[in-house]
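About this split. The held-out portion is used to measure sequence recovery: a designer receives only the structure tokens and must propose an amino acid at every position. Recovery is the fraction of positions where the proposal matches the reference. Here is one held-out target exactly as it appears in the evaluation file.
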């Protein structure tokens, strides 16, 4: 059971204090001069991708191959926690927690918008490829590219970090931190060095700022949906009220612990996911969904290596840097800390089961989600029923999502359901992330336990406050963009920690003696 009080002697002050200072510094810069924050972070991000895009692509492809190799090798039969360890959660609850705790509002937002943006060549994504916008080839490309960006490669990033963390924590009895995953490479001495603090602070900072950005995006989605569906204008009281509601929900969920909080919220949210998928598949253009999803998979698999090893030069900046590499850099920025969360809920499972739940099933779910949502939207655009490309060009991507939902049968029911899904998706992701961050701030967390509830609330409330301040007083959308760019730029720093973790995983599972 988690502790309900914080023992000051058990707090890793060297991680806790620098994390707070750096987060507040970023927030203050955003408030005082949000243009400076946006410009600096965006320049760092562009420079990192222009010069290291090749490395992002190579490491992502390599991680996918490595993770699949681990899954189907003899290593896959090792049980996390030992041969007698019993699973903490049922199979369906475990999957619901990993799915909803990982994707947050991402697939809900981009399941409609990303295929439409590619199809209509909104920002020049098709220019360098020579594909004609609104053509049949563009239809196939839109699906195929989404499958690449949102399925196996990115989930392999999370899965490898999760299984490595779970193994060193449950089987090798190491501390629950990013640094512990590097002990196979550098030995026990790294845990007591200054490098340990730097590694954990940078990893924690990347995901904390990313979560602040996600919080702000969640608020924008909710207020946009209320305006589109019910004509409710985005006022400051509404904005702050929604922010406080989210804070209360994910702080409460985090405080009561994984069993009573995230497990129940994740299960509930997952059922709404499943229900919406079935509804859209039945009422939508079912045959078109099946055919273009299949054609999209053909496009994806046909171009897998070409897309996977494109350092920007093949697809161009508008497509590769602004979409694929941007996405992968954010996934990598989140990976070390997300791995801690995935590890905590995997006790008693085999490594093969772990990778099935955290790689195969969410990747397949991503194909289904984009296939159903994306093809519904593409069909409306193709037949002239709705001009979503124009909606994106003249307003913003979030409004296009709700314009799509408004055109669906039973939209009066679907709109509030979708708003609820957006809200609860972020709640589950914020719960998972604040739990992981809190765990990194404690010295020794017994196997099967969690960080103290108050520590989780401290981080959750701090992240929420920074997000509300940045969105409300940091220059509106520009302030939000500054935080997003900063989070993505943080992926460049985490990239090198991530590469060390990948090397550590190779040594752990293929060269060191395995701990059964």
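Reference sequence for scoring:
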């Amino acid at each position: 059971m988690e502790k309900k009080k914080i023992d000051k002697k058990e707090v890793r002050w060297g991680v806790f204090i620098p994390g707070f200072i750096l987060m507040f510094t970023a927030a203050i810069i955003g408030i005082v001069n949000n243009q400076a924050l946006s410009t600096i972070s965006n320049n760092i991000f562009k420079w990192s991708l222009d010069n290291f895009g090749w490395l992002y692509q190579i490491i992502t492809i390599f991680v996918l191959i490595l993770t699949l190799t681990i899954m189907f090798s003899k290593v896959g039969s090792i049980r996390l926690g030992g041969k007698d360890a019993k699973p903490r959660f049922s199979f369906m609850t475990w999957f619901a927690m990993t799915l909803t705790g990982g994707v947050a509002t991402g697939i809900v937002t981009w399941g409609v918008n990303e295929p439409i943006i590619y199809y209509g060549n909104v920002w020049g994504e098709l220019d360098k490829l020579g594909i004609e916008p609104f053509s049949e080839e563009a239809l196939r490309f839109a699906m195929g590219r989404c499958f690449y960006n949102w399925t196996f490669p990115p989930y392999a990033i999370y899965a490898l970090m999760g299984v490595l963390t779970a193994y060193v924590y449950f089987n090798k009895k190491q501390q629950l931190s990013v640094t512990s995953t590097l002990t196979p490479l550098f030995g026990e001495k790294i845990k007591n060095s200054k490098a340990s603090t730097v590694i954990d602070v940078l990893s924690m900072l990347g995901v904390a700022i990313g979560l602040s950005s996600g919080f702000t995006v969640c608020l924008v989605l909710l207020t946009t949906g209320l305006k589109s569906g019910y004509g409710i204008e985005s006022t400051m009281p509404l904005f702050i009220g929604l922010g406080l509601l989210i804070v209360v929900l994910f702080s409460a969920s985090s405080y009561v612990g994984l069993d009573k909080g995230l497990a129940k919220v994740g299960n509930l949210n997952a059922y709404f996911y499943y229900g919406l998928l079935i509804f859209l598949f039945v009422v939508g253009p079912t045959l078109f969904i099946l055919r273009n999803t299949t054609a999209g998979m053909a496009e994806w698999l046909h171009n897998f290596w070409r897309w996977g090893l494109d350092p920007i030069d093949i697809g161009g900046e508008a497509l590769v840097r602004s979409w694929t590499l941007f996405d992968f850099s954010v996934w990598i920025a989140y990976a070390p800390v997300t791995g801690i969360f995935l590890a905590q809920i995997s006790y008693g499972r085999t490594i093969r089961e772990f990778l099935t739940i955290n790689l195969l099933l969410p990747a397949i779910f991503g194909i289904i989600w984009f296939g159903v949502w994306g093809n519904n939207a593409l069909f409306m655009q193709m037949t002239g029923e709705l001009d979503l490309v124009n909606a994106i060009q003249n307003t913003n991507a979030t409004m296009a999502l709700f314009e799509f939902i408004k055109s669906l049968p039973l939209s009066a029911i679907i709109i509030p359901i979708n708003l609820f899904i957006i809200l609860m998706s972020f709640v589950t992701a914020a719960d998972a992330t604040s739990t992981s961050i809190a765990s990194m701030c404690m010295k020794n967390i017994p196997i099967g336990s969690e960080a103290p509830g108050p520590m989780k609330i401290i981080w959750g409330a701090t992240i929420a406050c920074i997000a509300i301040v940045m969105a409300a007083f940091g220059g509106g959308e520009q302030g939000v963009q500054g935080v997003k760019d900063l989070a993505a730029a943080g992926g460049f720093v985490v990239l090198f920690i991530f590469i060390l973790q990948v090397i550590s995983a190779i040594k752990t599972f293929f060269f060191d003696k395995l701990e059964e």
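Annotator remark: The first helix runs from residue 13 to 32.
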